[in-house]
Write a structure and sequence with these properties.
three-stranded antiparallel sheet, globular, Pnp Oxidase, Chain A, seven-stranded antiparallel sheet, mainly beta, 198 residues
């Protein structure tokens, strides 16, 4: 099958590209508005982009609260989503009134961050405190929505007790959640090691 990504083949119910480029880590981001209102929202397009320094990115279509907060304050926190936080993460994805506290709506406690003002999710097994590096404006086929790529530098790392096993982060043990396509998610359960050829 070959098809134009902007012209869906009649044999397909939905565009499969997001299901093919998967799994993806969930960008569950906590931010603060300039007046101190807390925001928590998940992003489907999130990833690590380099390691010297460590930087992460998330992409957004339309300028939502998280984007506006990061642009205004220059800070955000990425919170790891584990299987036990799936429902809370999904609740925080809903449309809420401006200024609403998604932590409260999702029944989550906040924990103070070490280097940035936005709090982290207290139950998250890991978190990255980030400082804005740059915002890249991307082209958009929809004139009513702007696409933007936000890149942040990791300034501090939180890892919960028990999430490190033999000196390594235990992604399977914490049952980390990943985003697939459509409405699908996956839990990291099976991990194998592969040595690169010399």
């Amino acid at each position: 099958m070959d098809f134009d990504p902007d012209a869906l083949d009649p044999a397909l119910r939905h565009n499969p590209i997001k299901a093919m480029v998967a799994p993806r880590p969930i960008g569950w981001l906590s931010t603060l508005s300039p007046d101190g209102a807390v925001n928590l929202a998940p992003y489907s397009f999130f990833n690590l982009v380099c390691d010297a320094p460590y930087m992460v990115m998330f992409a957004t279509s339309g300028h939502k609260d998280s984007f506006n907060n990061v642009r205004a304050t220059g800070e955000f926190v990425w919170n790891l989503v584990s299987e036990d936080l799936c429902e809370a993460m999904n609740t925080s994805a809903g449309s809420a009134a401006p200024g609403a506290d998604e932590f409260e709506l999702a029944g989550l406690e906040k924990a103070a961050s070490r280097c940035v003002a936005p709090p982290r999710v207290a139950r998250a097994r890991a978190a990255l405190e980030c400082q804005l590096d740059q915002i890249v404006d991307l082209k958009s086929d929809d004139p009513t929505r702007r696409n933007s790529l936000v890149i942040g530098t990791v300034r501090s790392v939180f890892i919960a007790d028990g999430a490190i096993v033999d000196g390594r982060f235990d992604a399977a043990g914490v049952r980390q959640l990943a985003r697939l396509g459509y409405r699908d998610y996956a839990v990291i359960e099976k991990i194998f090691e592969l040595q690169r050829p010399s």
